[in-house]
Amino acid sequence: MLERFLKTDLSFTLFAQRALLGAVMLPHGAQKLLGWFGGYGFSGTIDYFGGTLHIPSALGFLVIMSEAFGSLGLLLGLGTRLAAFGSAATMIGAVLTTHLQVGFFMNWFGNQPGEGLEYHLLALALALPLVVRGGGAFALDRAVLSALTMRRTHAEERATRGVAQPGFVDHAS
After folding, report:
1. Of 37, 43, 70, 83, which one's alpha carbon is 20 to 30 angstroms from that of 24?
2. Does pTM top 0.90 for this prediction?
3. Which H or E run contains 131?
């Protein structure tokens, strides 16, 4: 199962999607977690989610963590599928709680009561292939999988040769 979670190919398209999604989500996470770029910061965001949007604080916490740390995971290609899933879930939640009633278009001219959902659809279009196929080229997921596979292979080789594992005491002999 861990292999399925980490496995990816050398696709430069997936790499570009991962890097772009991570780069777009990072400032949003910094707004919510740190208060940068005009954001509310952690406690202000939790209060806004709960008081204005009526989103439970546990879910607000997951949104903040997804945007702040998931974006870093996307940029590094580490835990890509989970990070992309978090971004996708956040976008779906934002559409359903806030943006769907505004309509499709962004509020470019200030004549709408809020922002539409087109941004969220684009973020979903970047996230979903990453959930399905992984992070592509330059993803640290590949290095982690390689290290785990090598470790498992060495352990299997030792076991088939009858070499005891370090720290293993054979009380039967």
Report:
1. 43
2. no
3. helix 118-133
